[in-house]
Design brief:
The complex is a heterodimer. Chain A is of the alpha/beta class. Helices cover 33% and strands 28% of the residues of chain A. Chain A is built from eleven helices and 14 strands. Chain A has a six-stranded mixed sheet, with helices on both faces. Chain A is elongated. In chain A, 37% of the residues are buried. Chain B is mainly α. Chain B has one domain. In chain B, 81% of the residues lie in helices and 0% in strands. Chain B contains ten helices and no strands. The longest helix of chain B has 34 residues. The radius of gyration of chain B is 20 Å and the shape is globular. At the A-B interface, helix 2 and helix 3 of A face helix 1 and helix 4 of B.
């Protein structure tokens, strides 16, 4: 069952001053199944936050469809099962944490007895029990982020949509948020979150989708990602000279150099020995031989450094300046 | 209903914690207090001066508080994106607007309660002469402020606080004079002028129906039916304003 389903969503904005039309999402599609943790990756300005706002009904799609729990966006039945943490959360500074969570719970239709019990549980989960009666205006950025997570999980939603949940957190705060998310994952909750912190995403997600220029360019399971690099070996050597590549060209898949060191990814295990011997014979010194795997960072860099998904001509055609006056 | 009450309570809480509310109340109290010291200057009209100043202070402070609170609270929440937390919950957009209005009206009611208490003290301690018309006048001022709150709420769904304040003040002035304009047009204007003023008369809020200050100050009789009609008028006009505010807010996108 798809908890979240986005199909062919298009969205454009008009600049307030010039009336220029800017396409932000180009037929974007993605889905998340029940119990899945789906990471949403993309460079700044790729359309992550716009996608999230379309999913939440804060902005309307020009075309395409979005369903949450098989209901259209904005349906109260699905909104009751949703928890959301915005990017750069701003809450009500005049409220204490307890009052703020009480307000959020009341908006979610929680009764007072249930609310009291849940507030105790969530403030403890985000380690803010000692600050429950403190006004939010006295909170640091990291504490506000944790308060934001507390309001998102307060009503025990089935789907969590988190926009940059690790933003503004120190290492301890990051670990705490990660632990909360791991616990939610264990409890079968569906989590859809965007982040720029790739190691956290790699450790939490079942699947990641990469967005670039308003289009999903890759969706891949983390297990499949790990398999991508299997069988390959990385050889690190120093005193490297470019002419050394000649004799081993057929064995090496890729090469990158930093200073006097070189990192060679060898295609197959059986080629490792001839590569090492070649390097020694030519005066290089082998420092390390390690099994290679494809990281999320490798995949992300590979996807965003590819030539544009849309040509310059396409982009130009999509920017129409209103000239009616 | 549950969500409307939650939004209203939060709005009320936020309003009463705003410094501007305390400042406005202080200003109103000083204004009323000053009338006690100034009234001896008006020989034989001490009581009239005290009541006139007190009722005017309640009305003006009420309207200013309504414009400031109503205009800034929605805008601030949208601008700082705190509204995301509300609209991503099972809260219909009309419930948010109605809740906001209820919260602001509750804060205004608090202002009226405090200022009326001060007025009673000032009149009782000074000139004396507490009468039912005084309380009816305060009640009608409160209704007038409620109408202003609904107008503020309408403007705040699509424009900035400064423009909201400007438009509302314009409507407040025009609404206070619309009855006079209609009379003026019927006596001296042509057919076109009469149609135009007639149109304005029915579109703009007729705030004159909420003015019972003259009767209160001069201890003149007033009709309970007029008060009832004014109550009905305030309810209908506010409901229409809120209906349009909800329509606009429902269409609004939050980028």
């Amino acid at each position: 069952m798809y908890v979240l389903k986005v199909d062919g969503v298009k969205k454009h904005f008009r600049s307030d001053m010039s009336l220029a039309r800017r396409e932000v999402l180009h037929g974007l599609s993605l889905h998340a199944q029940a119990g899945e943790v789906l990471g949403f990756l993309g460079p700044n300005g790729a359309g992550k936050t716009t996608t999230i706002k379309v999913i939440l009904g804060l902005i309307r799609a020009d075309s395409g469809s979005v369903t949450l729990f098989d209901h259209p966006v904005g349906d109260e039945r699905s909104m009751a099962r949703l928890g959301y943490l915005p990017e750069t959360p701003y809450f009500y500074p005049h409220l204490s944490l307890g009052e703020f969570l009480g307000y959020c719970g009341a908006l979610s239709g929680m009764g007072s007895a249930q609310l009291r019990e849940r507030i105790d549980a969530v403030v403890e989960a985000v380690d803010l029990s000692a600050h429950r009666d403190k006004r939010l205006k006295a909170f640091s950025k990291g504490m506000l982020q944790r308060a934001g997570l507390a309001q998102a999980i307060l009503h025990d939603p089935d789907l969590l949509i988190l926009d940059e949940p690790f933003s503004g957190l120190d290492p301890m705060g990051r670990k705490l948020v990660r632990d909360v998310l791991i616990d939610l994952k264990k409890r079968g909750k569906t989590i859809f979150f965007s982040s720029h912190i790739l190691p956290d995403m790699e450790s939490l997600c079942d699947r990641v989708c990469i967005i670039r220029e308003g289009v999903i360019v890759k969706c891949i399971g983390l297990d499949d990602l790990r398999k991508l690099g299997e069988g390959k070996v990385e050889v690190t050597a120093r005193r490297w000279r470019p002419d050394m590549l000649g004799g081993i060209h057929g064995y090496v898949e890729s090469k990158r150099e930093t200073g006097e060191e070189v990192f060679l990814v060898v295609r197959e295990q059986r080629f490792v020995r001839p590569v090492i011997e070649h390097l020694y014979d030519n005066g290089a010194e082998v420092l390390e031989v390690a099994g290679e795997h494809c990281s999320l960072e490798d995949l992300f860099m590979q996807e965003i450094s590819r030539p544009g998904v849309r040509t310059k001509k396409e982009k130009k055609e999509e920017t129409h300046v209103f000239t009616g006056f | 209903m549950h969500t409307i009450a939650a939004v209203a309570l939060n709005t009320f809480r936020e309003s009463v914690r705003e410094k501007i509310l305390a400042i406005a109340l202080l200003f109103g109290v000083i204004l009323m207090g000053s009338s006690v010291f100034l009234s001896p200057l008006a020989v034989g009209a001490k009581q009239k001066i005290v009541m006139d100043v007190a009722l005017a202070a309640i009305s003006i402070i009420g309207v200013l508080v309504a414009i400031f609170l109503g205009g800034t609270l929605v805008h601030k929440e949208v601008d700082r994106k705190a509204i995301y937390l509300v609209l991503t919950r099972p809260v219909p957009r009309h419930a948010y607007i109605v809740g906001k209005l209820a919260g602001v009206v509750a804060a205004v009611a608090l202002v009226f309660a405090v200022m009326t208490a001060v007025m009673i003290a000032v009149i009782a301690l000074g000139a004396g002469g507490l009468r039912p018309a005084l309380f009816a006048s305060v009640y009608l001022s409160f209704l007038e402020t409620t109408v202003i709150c609904s107008i503020v709420m309408l403007f705040s769904t699509f424009t900035t606080p400064i423009l909201t304040a400007f438009f509302t003040l314009c409507l407040f002035v025009a609404g206070s004079l619309s009855g006079d304009l209609k009379v003026f047009a019927s006596k001296f204007g042509g057919a076109g002028m009469q149609i135009a003023t007639g149109l304005f008369y029915y579109l703009l809020p007729n705030l004159k129906v909420f003015n019972l200050r003259h009767e209160a100050v001069h201890d003149l009789p007033f009709k309970a039916a007029d008060v009832l009609l004014a109550t009905l008028y305030a309810a209908v006009y506010s409901a229409v304003m809120i209906y349009f505010a909800c329509l606009i807010f429902k269409r609004r996108e939050f980028r």
